[in-house]
Design goal:
It is built from 17 helices and 13 strands. The protein has helices at 99-105, 146-160, 179-189, 197-203, 224-235, 239-242, 246-266, 281-298, 325-331, 336-344, 351-360, 370-380, 401-405, 418-424, 430-438, 470-481, 502-511; strands at 29-34, 40-50, 62-68, 76-80, 109-113, 121-123, 138-140, 168-177, 214-218, 309-311, 365-368, 455-461, 485-491.
């Protein structure tokens, strides 16, 4: 196990010379985790494995590895990041209630890396005039792009010791939620891109590849330089915006007007080959919401028409029916002949039979009133202000977490979009612009120098308003357009959350080749 000089006191951390990266296969500790269903999972824990040699923040720059009994060098690796709000995330232990514990139960090697974030700090132990640092000064260690650099270094560490750490570093599956979903998307979308290389070398990361096999992204808070436009494109027409503060509405109107140009620049095509434009974009979002609701309805969920959905008339016989006998038979797990025999006992298909069939088949959802639906979403949780992300100084607003994310090591907060900077009289420096670019997976998908993960699982709640539906939709479509395998859904009735429907997730993971 690597030896690290830890700081004395709560805030001070040393930066003494560090030894080479190390992994001791004999240093594991046998443990047992009991799952909610009573299953006991036996595994070996290897903890506090520092993944860089030039450690700036010893509280976060290490990972933990958990190897279930029976794992081999060919076992896939499930890498779960707990980044939230772009804040620091310490390397934790497996949890029986989320994907980390489920991964162990399924037999995957589990890796939980720590990473610095916008709130992580150290205290300078000496002055450095070249860096403008004084002894005793608080230094913010985790401003962009520190978190993704740490996660890339963790992946490189796993490859560096692939021969001795159980698990296959060629089959790493990343998972994260919210800002962690953004980090998962970045790990998947930026593999081996040279733009990160000088910073990784300076950190003392292993000289290895950092591409991954698959990325699981729950409600990714990403594409931050365009997220304000996307938000107002979707929510500008809601009662909350139209009847709210006049200054906020004016900002919303301006941001909404900017979105069509960005959408056009993406040159996105739907799975059926239709070019997405400002004219058909809302209809595509509608189709995704209808698909989500229909899946849920088929599984037995109650979908109220008060949300804006329009249903077909239930009918199972006669000309022009919307529901075929084969579809009914499939839903009821019987053959068409068996269905015919059952119907022959009730030729008129009286109401009790209609209800019985509707329980299994239900009506088709054929339309959605988007205005009504979006107002429903807003009713479940109030909208963010406009702008939703780059708020600092715009119509008198305070800095957001994202403004802090792109600040500097002294703890500043800055505007990071041209729109908000112009509103506040600030300038986007080349350094800030570069950091914003490095945190946007959309910039790397489809280029010639990046190894993008071949498999993607992207979920965003159908009533999640923390970022707008266009953000995950655009990510999914750009990946699909680049030829990647993408499993995408606006998960029905889900708020801003992650690691749900784990049966479905791990069935998807098992299907990967």
């Amino acid at each position: 196990m690597i030896a690290v000089a830890l700081a004395l006191g709560l805030s001070a951390k040393t930066k003494a010379p560090q030894p080479a990266l190390q992994f001791d296969p004999n240093a594991g500790e046998a443990r047992v985790m009991t799952m909610h269903d009573g299953t006991r999972v036996r595994y070996t824990a290897y903890e506090r494995l520092y993944f860089v040699t030039n450690i700036e923040d010893s509280a976060y720059q290490f990972l933990n590895v958990y190897v279930p009994d029976g794992a081999t060098q060919q076992t896939p690796i499930f890498l779960r990041t707990y980044v939230g709000g772009y804040m620091a995330s310490a390397a934790g232990q497996p949890q029986d209630g989320d994907a980390s514990g489920r991964a162990l139960k399924e037999g995957y090697v589990l890796v939980i890396p720590g990473s610095r974030g916008r709130n992580s700090t150290v205290t300078a132990t000496k002055s450095d005039k070249k860096k403008g640092v004084k002894k005793g000064q608080t230094i913010y260690t985790g401003r962009a792009p520190a978190a993704i650099l740490d996660l890339k270094a963790a992946i490189r560490y796993l490859r560096h010791f692939d021969d001795v750490i159980p698990g296959d570093a060629e089959h790493i599956i990343t998972d994260g939620t919210s800002a962690g979903g953004a980090m998962s998307s970045l790990m998947g979308a930026t593999g081996n891109n040279p733009a990160y290389e000088p910073m990784l070398q300076a950190m003392g990361a292993a000289d290895e590849r950092d591409d991954v096999f698959a990325s699981v992204c729950y409600c990714p808070i990403t594409d931050l330089d365009h997220a304000d436009m996307a938000y107002e494109c979707l929510y500008n027409g809601t009662d909350s915006r139209q009847q709210g503060d006049a200054d906020v509405l004016a900002v919303s109107n301006e941001l909404k007007a900017m979105f069509p140009a960005y959408l056009a620049s993406l040159n996105l095509y739907t799975p059926d080959g239709t070019l997405l434009t400002a004219d058909n974009y809302l209809d595509y979002i509608k189709s995704e919401l209808i698909r989500s609701a229909q899946i849920a309805k088929n599984a037995g969920a109650d979908i109220p028409d008060s949300l804006g959905f329009v249903f077909s008339a239930p009918s199972i016989n006669g000309g022009g029916t919307r529901v075929s006998k084969q579809e009914i038979a499939d839903q009821m797990h019987m053959s068409v002949n068996e269905l015919d025999k059952m119907l022959s006992r009730d030729i008129q298909v009286r109401p009790p039979m209609q209800l019985r069939l509707a329980k299994w088949v239900g009506e088709y959802i054929i339309d959605l009133d988007m205005d009504k639906y979006l107002n429903y979403v807003v009713s479940t949780r109030p909208l963010k202000t406009a702008p939703a992300f780059d708020t600092q100084g715009v119509v008198g607003q305070n800095a957001s977490g994202e403004n802090e994310e792109f600040g500097d090591s002294k703890g500043s907060s800055v505007n990071f979009t041209e729109y908000s900077a112009a509103k506040t009289g600030n300038v986007i420096t080349p350094e800030i612009a570069n950091h914003v670019s490095l945190l946007n997976p959309m910039n790397f998908i489809g280029d010639s120098v990046t190894d993008v993960a071949p498999h993607w699982y992207i979920r965003h709640g159908a009533r999640d308003r923390d970022t707008a539906f266009p953000v995950p939709i655009n990510l999914a479509l750009k990946l699909q357009n680049a030829g990647k395998d993408v499993n995408f859904l606006l998960a029905w009735n889900r708020p801003h959350s992650g690691d749900y429907a784990l049966d479905e997730l791990f069935e998807w993971i098992k299907s990967l080749r």
